[in-house]
Amino acid sequence: ERGHLTSEAVAVLVCIVLTSTMVVEPVMLWSYNRMLKPSQPYDRRTVSGLKQDDDFRVISCIQSPRNIPGMTNILDISRVSHVFALHLMELIGRTSAMLIVHESNTESAASPFYNKTRAQSDQIVTAFENYERRHNGATSVQTLTIVSPMETMHEDVCNLAEDKQVSVILLPFHKQQGMDGKLEDDGNMEIRSVNQNVMARAPCSTAILIDRGIGMIPVSGSS
Hints:
Blueprint lengths: L6 H30 L20 E6 L5 H11 L3 E9 L7 E5 L12 H20 L5 E9 L4 H12 L3 E5 L2 E3 L5 E3 L4 H12 L3 E5 L14
InterPro entries: CHX17_2nd, CPA2_transporter
Keywords: Ion transport, Membrane, Transmembrane, Transmembrane helix, Transport
Pfam families: CHX17_2nd
């Protein structure tokens, strides 16, 4: 009769459902595990795997302008070919994270920063433009800002490292040297968790810069 299934049709439908369950579930589990599996580094994306003629590409993470002198001095003596200066900024009052690419001599209309935050970004951009100028084209620099929740900021850093195929991520230590020479908390302990998560999940080498005054030492090069 119309509207009723025969026993043969019911049997066929049951077989289809069982087959779909047996096939789809393993495929979904495999895909999910692939998503959770961290990126595996390969030789060309680690410092130890670099060859003499390889590009030395580095992400230099900047939490505040205080990190700039130490970072640029380390880069000076490392002879890198590409620097991606990355300003780490906590996401406040927005629903989605942002990656802002700073272009030379241009204003970013998409930058929703308050004056203090914008001033920090401008200071970082200017410092790394000067760094690039000092090296007369031997090192290319791109300055970016990540605006992201601290809990997931490491994912954005690692994704950028993957995209730019860098060999090392330089991270700022979560403490700064005080006037008495001792290391003091800089008021943002969450950066420690960001550092730990980046080191655990990075697709390349990682390093933490503990600035004990190297940023105040002038570095001279020889031609």
